[in-house]
Design brief:
The chain is an alpha+beta fold. The chain folds into two domains: 37-138, no CATH class; 142-303, C8orf32 fold. It has helices at residues 2-19, 21-33, 65-77, 92-101, 103-112, 142-159, 166-179, 202-208, 213-226, 278-286, and strands spanning 82-86, 119-126, 131-138, 182-183, 210-211, 231-235, 240-246, 249-253, 274-276. α3 (65-77) crosses α5 (103-112) and α8 (202-208) packs across α9.
Length: 304
């Protein structure tokens, strides 16, 4: 009888181990095999800023949804092209899937990092043990970055920014890109993902003298980061522009809307959307009888 009980207990133990094999393997992976996951050292375009929506982190073992968002921000902000992390809470996989499938999460975080660290495509792989692997294809190639940096450095030298104050420096660059850029009307919300174009990047604006809003805002963000201003891109469903912290206040810059398309083809330079607060942004937008600056205030909280 005693021998039978031992055999029964042994069988029950085997059944228990088999039914819980994934959980057991996951614990082994987290606690012994992959117990020391770390981020890579940040590249030169890392921004040492935390925002209300996401913050830099060292934690690759998320225990809540916010931890996952912070991992995504940190990965992009450091310029990494891949990272792995482990889910440590029950709803983690669901949260990862929601973030991966929800455009607002990823696009918004992409706006907060330096354009040179932003992604063109981002891929999620999830295994049965709760390990998530991210693979990132960047928006700008190394060659493009080299050319853009050289071009902006030349513009800054041409503008003789050394003798100007902060406001004057930013205005000089704002005016330069408007005076030397035409809005690319051939690109719209319907075809921008299928048309082969550089107008959605700084390369289009700086090398081809044409851009859409993402090209204007990327170029402005690269310039602002060169001068170490805390800034990021801010977007609505159909539009993107810049937000900068200047004299401890957050201000909007929308170079696209300061470069309107005229009916007679005449070049126009405005300052209606240059270093203004959110109330001014809303009021000035009414003049154009369009609503494109209705951003998500739960994400871009600095603009509130």
């Amino acid at each position: 009888m005693e021998k039978f009980l031992y055999i029964l207990l042994f069988i029950l133990l085997i059944v228990l181990v088999y039914t819980k094999r994934n959980e057991i393997t996951k614990d082994i992976m987290i606690n012994y095999v992959d117990n020391d996951l770390k981020f890579e050292e940040p590249n030169e375009y890392y921004k040492n800023y935390d925002y209300e929506y996401v913050q830099n982190t060292e934690n690759l073992y998320p225990e809540k949804k916010q931890d996952i968002l912070n991992i995504l921000y940190t990965t992009l902000n450091r310029g990494q092209t891949e990272v792995s992390f482990y889910c440590k809470y029950e709803e983690c996989i669901n949260d990862v899937n929601e973030i991966a499938e929800g455009k607002d999460y990823l696009a918004s975080i992409n706006n907060l990092v330096h354009p040179f660290n932003s992604y063109k495509n981002i891929y999620f792989t999830i295994n049965k043990y709760g390990k998530i692997e991210l693979s990132i294809k960047k928006q700008y190639s190394d060659t493009e970055i080299l050319i853009i940096n050289q071009k902006i450095d030349n513009i800054m030298s041409e503008l003789s920014l050394e003798s100007l104050n902060d406001y004057e420096k930013i205005q000089a660059f704002h005016d330069y890109i408007i005076n030397n850029t035409t809005y690319d009307s051939s690109i719209n919300i319907e075809n921008q993902l299928t048309v082969d174009t550089n107008s959605n990047k700084a390369t289009g604006l700086l090398l081809e003298n044409k851009a859409i809003c993402s090209g204007y805002s990327d170029t402005m963000a690269i310039f602002l980061n060169k001068l170490n201003y805390n800034n990021y891109k801010i977007s609505s469903e159909k539009h993107v522009w810049n937000l900068i912290k200047l004299d401890n206040n957050w201000k909007h810059i929308d170079a696209t809307w300061d470069d309107p398309i005229s009916s007679d083809g005449k070049d126009i330079l405005l300052h209606d959307f240059f270093l203004i607060d959110t109330n001014e942004l809303i009021e000035n937008e009414k003049k154009f009888e369009q609503i494109e600056h209705n951003f998500n205030k739960n994400i871009y909280k600095e603009a509130n």
